Amino acid sequence: MSYVQDVFEMTARENRGQVQFLQTVGEVLRSIQPAVEQNEGVLKKFRILERMVEPDRQLIFRVTWEDDKGEFHVNRGYRVQFNNAIGPYKGGLRFQGNVNLDMMKFLAFEQTFKNSLTSLPMGGAKGGSDFDPTGKSENEIMRFCQAFMTELYRHIGPNMDVPAGDMGVGGREIGYLFGQYKRIVGAFENGVLTGKGLSYGGSLIRPEATGYGATYFLTEVLRHEGENIKGKTFCLSGFGNVAWGATKKITELGGKVVTLSGPDGYVYDPDGVSGEKMDFMLKMRASNRNLVKDYADRYPCEYVAGKKPWGNVKADVYMPCATQNEITLDDAVAMVAMGVPVLNEVSNMPTTNEACAYLQQHGVLVAPSKAVNAGGVATSGLEMSQNSERLNWSAQEVDMRLRDIMRDIHDKICDTLTEYNMGYNLVAGANLAGFKKVAEAMLAEGVY
Ligand code: GLU
Fold first, then answer.
1. 18 and which of 26, 62, 102, 382 could share a cystine (Cβ 3.0–4.6 Å)?
2. Which CATH code, of 3.30.1160.10, 3.40.50.720, 3.40.30.10, 3.10.180.10, is assigned to 209-372?
3. How far is the CA of 392 from the centre of ligand 1 (A)?
4. Tell me: the pLDDT tens digits for 351-398?
5. pTM
6. Which of 11, 13, 243 is nearest to 109 (CA)?
């Protein structure tokens, strides 16, 4: 059995039932095989793969908070600090009812390779809670964030671990989290969190960055194919921060976004989500209702309850911006039958491994989320730089750097594929390129 297979079987044995974590480990290990074979002796000797699939630390803590009626609730908080070989732990916090250790580990593992691709010094981590913000009042959100930080603060710091937002955690939540951190430590260390508001050390373009970055990456992919965004139609899922940023940039570049989705279903707006409709997306998120139907009520268009757009609406590009495993094998089959040529993955691991294999076998160009959505965390890295300098950069400067970073990621993937004599397989290329830097740093730093 090969070293890679060996490590996968060991991981499967020791993480039984953690299906999402094993899904991403399986995917990454499979693609890095060529790099591992080249250096098997040294990687094996220093147990690089075994160390790469085992988080440095997995923190689980209780969060007790009070609702508006004066009743107390208990939730579970998490922070998985996966790997800090190339920089302080870095990754978002997710507040959603279904958060569990499996999900946190999968996201922190992915984050390690994604952050490596950005070229910035950031290790991989993820955290969050099974607290569900849906229907919670502003004050309840604030009290929950404060209770969460009351435990988390002791595990993080600007040079140690720098959380940010993810699903259910946006600018408002980051503000409450930072306020509590500052009260507890008694110092203004704003580099401890990213995604902050502009008034206390946030970066311009950070809210837009994941969606903008995803669109810039797609631009590189399309350029490689001799095409561009202008005149193309896009099916997006989700309607949160990421879908909003992507919609803004796609529209600006002459593309048309015709679908959005939520947990309740999807909307099909053939006129395109543009102008004030994009601002309305922000209101939908701030309402904590989590219903995409609100869009169709406000801007009359087709609303399809209980379904996703995949395979139901034809477009030039599919861009999942909602959550993990939102594209299953059935969706992939429908997508191929419909003739959708490009899948630009924005949400973390939106495609099941079977669906991804099917799409690639049937000629669909798949751009993997690790590369596509890296603009979010990359701009978090730029926010950290500004905090260290105690300076603020202009929107143009941040945007230009973001664009350069996304182009650089695409170039790096292409160079890596050339190095291993492989075709334009972005999924494999992203994993290989992300892996190489982390492995190199781990080897250089010795066994610890
Ligand atoms: N949650 C985002 C991600 O999945 C951003 C993380 C960050 O900015 O640290 O990459």
1. 102
2. 3.40.50.720
3. 20
4. 999 999 999 999 999 999 999 999 999 999 999 999 999 999 999 999
5. 0.97
6. 11
